[in-house]
Amino acid sequence: MPERGFIEVDRVEKVFDVRRRTGFLRREVRRVRAVDSISFTVARGEMVGYIGPNGAGKSTTVKMLTGILTPSGGRLRVAGIDPSRERTRLAHRIGVVFGQRTTLWWDLPLIDSYRLMHRMYRIPDARYRENLDRLVELLDLGALLDVPVRQLSLGQRMRGDIVAALLHDPEVLYLDEPTIGLDTVSKARVREFLRELNTERGTTVLLTTHDLQDIEQLCSRVMVIDHGRMVYDGALTGLHEVGGAERTLVVDLERELPPIDAGPAARVVKVDGPRQWLAFPASESAAPLVARIAAAYPLLDLSVREPDIEAVIARVLSVTGGAPEPPAERETVVPGAPSS
């Protein structure tokens, strides 16, 4: 059995004070609860998806788990370490990739960033060379090591950031939008690499993303957060069932025909000449549906389109009622007057 509680989050909350002017010499302080009493555990070696609408609190959670932010309340432990109290000690056991921000030095060649990581983390020379060679080969970065980071494409930089996060063999890897802006080939390469990393090295991975294919191809468990509160924690198939999510099978026929009769497994939602779109439950395999159509209709091509992750989340929230937005707490402050 895998170890439970490698990552432990117990009734954690994070409150920010947002100030704005409301008049001459007056300003209002608005308390915003970005994370509102969430709890979960992640076992050693798990790969878990952590999703939600924009502003739901995903990145704030990751920042607390890395020690960048201190929780306003509750208890956090990563590998038995309190991130906010022992951030330096924890840094040697975790790796972090923020899709919107790079950890690489902008004007330096890529290899120089890795040499700096080598010194910062005090990685033994042999281990550094072994990890660098393996990671560079797996992520196809050999020809880019002498290129300044500012000259790399977004996809190249993202792969470079992943290497930087893994040079010191972290036990936990936090990925915040790791495939954002990547082309299809780069996404496939990164996903395959992460799958191998988790399988072969047992690295624990917490993944936030807006790409549902990232979750489907990598994670068996998914957590949904909304307004800072957990609204779902379970299998991906269960998420689809709760939200009633649907995938779309796009069928190109040899000629224009009446709507396809796919039986109870699917329904035709659109017909445009010889092309037809059929919706079927996202929790079901497309194989039986494809086989049925291929046996009865003259086909030219088939493709499956995944549901948009925002649509899946919206469906789940509509079914579960979601998490109500916590009421804002306001306080008017007058300069020179005491405030609470």
From TrEMBL:
Membrane topology: Peripheral membrane protein
Keyword Nucleotide-binding: yes
Single GO MF descriptor: ATP binding
Region (Disordered): 321-340
ABC transporter domain sequence ranges: 13-252
Signal sequence region: none
KW Transport (keyword) present: yes
This protein's name: ATP-binding cassette domain-containing protein
Organism of origin: Streptomyces antibioticus
